[in-house]
Amino acid sequence: MKMEDEGCFSKAVAVMACTGLAFFYVAILYCPTLILRLPPPTSLANFMIRRFICAAVFSVISILVTSLVLPIRSWQASYLFGVYGIRADHIWHAVVFPLFLTSLMYAGSLLSKTLLLVNSWKEYKILNEADSFDCIRDALLKFFDWTISVSSNVVAWRNYVVAPFTEELVFRACMVPLLLCGGFKPYNVVFLSPIFFSLAHLNHLWELYSRQNCSMLKAVMVVGLQLGYTVIFGSYASLLFIRTGHLVAPTIAHIFCNIMGLPLLFSRAKGTITMAFVSGLVGFVWLLFPATAPDLYNDRTDNCHCWQGYCTWN
Fold first, then answer.
1. I need a labelling partner for 25 at 20 to 30 A (CA). Which of 108, 143, 166, 260 fits?
2. How far apart are CA 76 and CA 74, in angstroms?
3. Percent of the chain whose predicted confidence (pLDDT) is above 90
4. How far apart are CA 229 and CA 212, in angstroms?
5. What is the pLDDT of residue 128?
6. What pTM did the predictor assign?
7. How far is it, in rounded angstroms, from Cα 147 to Cα 7?
8. For the segment 100-114, what is each residue's pLDDT rounded down to a tens digit?
C-alpha cells in the first residue's frame, strides 16, 4: 500500500481533527468538577485517579472517532489495531532499538549516575568495611525499596504509565494517520504533530499560576521550557512512529525520557560528562535512520500493517 500524493480528505479537516483531539484531551481532565459537578477531590491520589480515568476514557473515544474519519479498508481486528500501530509482531525490535537510540541522548546523564553509584559504593565499603557481596546485596535491597515506593506513588503512575500510554495513543497513533491521510508528507507530519502535542501542555501555565501561586513570569518560563522540550520530543516520537509503524517504539522512548528528565549536557567538575553527551549525540544522529529502518520492524514494508504503508518512508 503506497501513500498517495492526494489525501483521503482535506488538510484542513486533518488539522481541525487534530486540534479537536488536543483540546478535548485536556478539557476532559476538568470534566469531573466542571461538568459532572463532583465534589473536589479530598487528596492528591483521588485527584490523579480521576484524571487517569478521564485520560483513559478519552483515549478510547479518540480511537473510535478517528476510525470513523479514516477511510479504513478492513474492520478485521489485526488490521484495525495495526492502523494505530498496536501490534504484537516485532515487539522486541520496537522496544530494544528505540530504547538504545534514546539512551544515547542521555549518555552524559547515564555516565553521571554511574559515577555517583560507584562513589557511593566505595564510600559504603569504607564506612561499613563491607565486601563486594554485601554492597551488591544492599544495592539490590535499596532498589527493591525504591521499586515498591514508586509503584505506590500516584505521581509516578502518571509520569511513567498513564501519560506515556494515553499521550502516545492520542498524539501519535490517532493524529499521525489523520495528518498523513490529509495529504501531509511524512516529514511535514514529523514537525507538525508536535505542535498539537505542545498545545496540550498549555494548561500547565494556568495551573502553575492559579493553583501553585507562581508568578506569571516564572510560570511562562517553566511552561516555555516544557513546550520547547515537548516539541523536540514530539518530533522524535512522531519519527519513531512513522518509521517503525509500532506504537511501542515512541511509548518506550516516552517512558524513558520521563524517568530521566532533561539530558545532562555538561558538568563543571567533570569534562567527561560533556564528552559523553557529545559522543552520545553524534551516535544518535548517526544511528537515527539505520536504527529506525522500516525493514527492522516489518516483514514486508510494501505491504505492512501501518496505515497506507507510511512506515515505508525511507
1. 260
2. 6
3. 36
4. 22
5. 65
6. 0.85
7. 47
8. 999 999 998 898 888
Residue 126 has pLDDT above 90, yes or no: no
DSSP 204-247: HHHHHHHTS---HHHHHHHHHHHHHHHHHHHHHHHHHHHHH--T
- Calculate the alpha carbon distances from 148 to 154, 155, 165, 175, 257 in Å: 12, 14, 21, 35, 21
Nearby residues of 267 by Cβ (< 8 Å), 6 or more positions away? 108, 112, 273, 274
Residue for grid cell 518506550: 252
- Alpha-carbon distances, residue 8 vs 116, 179, 232, 250 (angstroms): 54, 10, 28, 25
Q: Which residues are catalytic?
A: 167, 201
Cell (9 digits) for 196:
498539537
Query: CA-CA distance, 87 to 291, in Å (whole number)?
Result: 19
Q: Are 258 and 163 in contact (CB under 8 A)?
A: yes
Which grid cell is 266? 555538561
Q: What is the C-alpha separation between 51 and 36, in angstroms, rounded? A: 13
Q: Which of 22, 313, 20 is nearest to 185 (CA)?
A: 313
Nearest-5° Cα angle at 260, 259 to 266: 170
Look up residue 20 and give its amino acid. G
The three grid cell numbers given for residue 206, joined into one nine-digit string:
494556568
Specify the DSSP class assigned to residue 261. -
- Residues counted in the chain: 314
Q: How far is CA 89 from the centre of its chain?
A: 20
281 neighbors 266 (Cβ within 8 angstroms): no
Separation in Å, CA 178 to CA 16, 72, 84, 119, 198: 10, 11, 11, 50, 18
Other Cβ atoms less than 10 A from the Cβ of 238: the count is 24
Q: How far is CA 104 from CA 114, 276, 289, 303, in A?
A: 15, 9, 14, 31
Question: Hey, what's the cell of 291?
Answer: 536504527
